[in-house]
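Hi R.,

Here's the input for the adenosine-3',5'-cyclic-monophosphate complex you asked about:
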Amino acid sequence: MATERTFSILKPDATKRNITGAVNAVIEKAGLRIVGQRRIQMSKAQAEKFYEIHKERPFFGELVEFMTSGPVVVQVLEGENAIARYREVMGATNPAQAAEGTIRKTFSESVGENTVHGSDSAENAKIEIAQFFQDSDIVG
Ligand code: CMP
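And here is the predicted structure with adenosine-3',5'-cyclic-monophosphate in place:
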C-alpha cells in the first residue's frame, strides 16, 4: 500500500448546517490526515471547470448552482490508499444507497446535496488538487 493524496470538498450543505467539524472528525477517525484545508466561495467559473466532465448531464446546471450557493471547504487528504479509502468513508453518491457509518449515510439529504466530494482516481486527484492548492499550502 502506498501513501496517497486525494482532493476533498465539504459542500455548501455542510457549511450551511455547521457540520464541517463533525465531517472532519469522521475523516480523521478513518485514518486520513487533513494536510491542506481552505474555506472558499467557489465562483461559477471554478465550479464549471471543476465539474466539466459532467457538463452534458441534465443535472449540471443544478450542480453548479448548488456548489456556488455558499462556502465550501476544499481539502487535501493524505493516507494509505487515500483515494479509495476516502471514497469508502464518503459512501455511495446517493445517500439512500450509502452504507451505515459513512459520511453520506450519516449526514446527507439527497444525491445533489451529498455533503462531500472525493477524487475518483489518482489522475483526477492530481488535477483537482492543482485547481485549488499550491504545493506550499499543503503541509504533510
Ligand atoms: P460529486 O462526487 O461531487 O461529483 C458529481 C456530483 O454530481 C455528485 O457528487 C453529485 O453531488 C452530483 N449528482 C450526481 N447525480 C445527480 C443527480 N441525479 N442530481 C443532482 N446531482 C447529482
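One thing worth noting: The two ends are 18 Å apart (CA to CA).

Cheers,
M.
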